[in-house]
Amino acid sequence: MNLSILFDPLFATPLAVGLGLSLLLPVLGALLRLRDEWLAALGLAHLAGASGLIGMAVGLPVVLGAPLGALIGAAAKNSGRLTGNTVYALMILLGWCVTLLVAANTPLGAVMGHALIDGQLYLAGAGHLAAVVALLVLALVALPYLIPHVVRARLQPSFEAANRLPSWRWHLGFDLLAALGIAVGAAAVGVMAAFALAFVPPWVAFRISGSWRQCLLISAAVALIAYLVAFAAALLLDQPFGPVLVAVLLLTAFALKLAKR
Amino acid sequence: MSGALIRAEDLEVGYAQPVVGPLSFTVLPGEVVGLAGPNGSGKSTVLKALANHVRVFAGNMHRRSELTIGWLQQQPLQLPEMPFNGWEYLRYARAADAPPAHLAAWLDQRVDSLSGGQFQLLNVWAVLSSVAELLLLDEPTNNLDVEGEQSLANTLKQLEQRRGVLLVSHDRAFLERVCDRVLEVGG
């Protein structure tokens, strides 16, 4: 086993891309879980995968094409009558069939379709890093405004209507941020790995934390540790990154649940 | 009655069809107004109408400009998972005042581990200590023990003069104890 590969400058950019995502996606996932919309992460990731492939067909890089589909999905959810996990289930089905059809009918699509599903973090480049940095800056600016509104809307849903507040602003704002985060995640680490980063850490944290603050910290910490372990393990064992990350996240989750008992 | 927080005139409200009304009433600053009536008479529906949650079929409702409303629902929402302690819950509800000692004693706990009475008291306090001017309280004594009920009565008696309360309760004795006047609904 060649440990020096972990410190190869070639992997510095992919490492930084994944670090940024493993900090942000669990926080977005915690808010989605609070809204009982945890399936959003998978729905948006599938849409992002499909639009990433379609974008490539017209010459757009995946990191630009993927967010387009997810953003359109989030906007459509806000303007339509469908709510909650129903709309995200429809996104999964739509994204899945489009991805496979595009992949089956274009030469590059087959390769990229596999890359999006499996997760090819080690191929992440400057474009991915720029997208993640922009996403983190956007989240740092937007979340302090969005979180109190999103949480209050969930805990006291009657308040907004009673006071005739323009609640669409923060609901749409959060949906778009979540869509962007999941889409950039799907483009960088793959559809299922992005979903796992947004789903598994909050799933554990909701059970074991004593407060919301703890919940967000535990979510981010679980994701960060699992990511670092998976990054090293996939490189050293020459395994695809996405499935390794999902496996480490699941093992971490079960270990923490057992420890809590 | 230009100083009224809210004024209803011949109000008929309901869901697919009207279930209560016509009703006329006002709530002035500094007033605690009770709504009494038999089960199913539409007391809670009146509060829902004031909070824009049901249809208004007839009549008028005038809210004071920029009026803020705090609404304690008959059954405050309890999610299956609520990873918030009591302090955080109050902060997100924008509770402005420090909670009384008997409440503060268990605010470090997660709210989904509280008893029904504790959760009710937490929600009552979240509404009472908010900055809202008109408080809609729907069966606030549900699940409360004697101490909790007394604490609620004391708080209502010391209400700031800028605020008003419309209170629904099945407990006639409680209404007569804390309200400046009681309106009959239905029956």
Task: Output mean pLDDT of chain A.
Answer: 87
Structural class of chain B: alpha/beta
Query: How are helices and strands ordered from N to C of chain B?
Result: EEEHEEHHHEHEHE
Radius of gyration of chain A equals 18 Å
Number of strands of chain B: 8
Number of DSSP strands of chain A?
Answer: 0
| CATH top level label of chain A | Mainly Alpha
- Calculate the terminal CA-CA distance of chain B, rounded to whole Å: 28 Å
Q: Roughly how much helix do the residues of chain B carry, as a percent range?
A: 25-40%
Topology readout:
The complex is a heterodimer of chains A (261) and B (187).
Chain A: H1 12-34, H2 40-57, H3 62-79, H4 84-105, H5 107-118, H6 126-155, H7 158-162, H8 168-189, H9 191-208, H10 212-237, H11 241-260
Chain B: E1 6-14, E2 18-27, E3 32-36, H1 43-50, E4 55-63, E5 69-72, H2 86-92, H3 101-104, H4 116-128, E6 134-138, H5 146-157, E7 164-168, H6 172-178, E8 181-184
Parallel strand pairs in B: 3-7, 3-8, 5-6, 6-7
Antiparallel strand pairs in B: 1-2, 1-4
Helix pairs in contact in B: 4-5
How would you characterize this protein structure?
The complex is a heterodimer of chains A (261) and B (187). Chain A is an all-alpha fold and 261 residues long. Chain A has a single domain (9-199), classed as ABC transporter involved in vitamin B12 uptake, BtuC (Orthogonal Bundle). Chain A is built from 11 helices and no strands. Chain A has helices at 12-34, 40-57, 62-79, 84-105, 107-118, 126-155, 158-162, 168-189, 191-208, 212-237, 241-260. The longest helix of chain A has 30 residues, at 126-155. The N and C termini of chain A lie far apart (36 Å). Chain B is α/β, with parallel strands linked by helices and 187 residues long. Chain B has a single domain (6-184), classed as P-loop containing nucleotide triphosphate hydrolases (Rossmann fold, 3-Layer(aba) Sandwich), CATH 3.40.50. Chain B is 27% helix and 27% strand. Chain B is built from 6 helices and 8 strands. A 5-stranded parallel sheet of chain B has the order 5-6-7-3-8, with helices on both faces. In chain B, helix 4 (116-128) packs parallel to helix 5 (146-157). Chain B starts with 5 loop residues before the first strand and ends with a strand. The model of chain B has no long low-confidence stretch (mean pLDDT 89). Classes of the chains: A mainly alpha (261), B alpha/beta (187). At the A-B interface, helix 6, helix 7, helix 9 and helix 10 of A face strand 5 and helix 2 of B.
